[in-house]
């Protein structure tokens, strides 16, 4: 099968997200200018640089009470900071609750029953028991083609790693089973690893 996105796919559901998988989930926490915390998952998320460490996430829709975007991006535009919380399999239900379109000014930490802690390097809350948290300061916001496609880039200024996820000096993802987004309503969790040496190792 071949199709041009501009012409449509003629399938029951858009296959694009099912093709680009698995995608890590950035559970983004922000704080608005009034001091209210926000928590929402984004599957267009990834690390983009080592030195200094940098990440990105993209928002691809808008809310009526936020105009051109969603709460996370609106808050980051106001404050210049955000935190990426890594999602483990055990937190899948709380993550899903926080994905709802809640009114601006609602604290999804409270709605989803997620414990919060204050970040160290930025003024923002983080998911207290997440396997890892990446505290970030905004570096740039880029508008993409489309009505509400916005990419947020940030430099990581602080990193938390849960003690039980550290084994022999390494961050062991099999200890918490990272959650990944697939297509449609599907998710996956990482439960096992294998290694490959590069040809020049």
UniProtKB/TrEMBL annotation:
<feature type="domain" description="Flavin reductase like">
    <location>
        <begin position="18"/>
        <end position="173"/>
    </location>
</feature>
<dbReference type="InterPro" id="IPR012349">
    <property type="entry name" value="Split_barrel_FMN-bd"/>
</dbReference>
<protein>
    <submittedName>
        <fullName>Flavin reductase family protein</fullName>
        <ecNumber>1.5.1.-</ecNumber>
    </submittedName>
</protein>
<dbReference type="InterPro" id="IPR002563">
    <property type="entry name" value="Flavin_Rdtase-like_dom"/>
</dbReference>
<dbReference type="Pfam" id="PF01613">
    <property type="entry name" value="Flavin_Reduct"/>
</dbReference>
<dbReference type="GO" id="GO:0016491">
    <property type="term" value="F:oxidoreductase activity"/>
</dbReference>
<keyword id="KW-0560">Oxidoreductase</keyword>
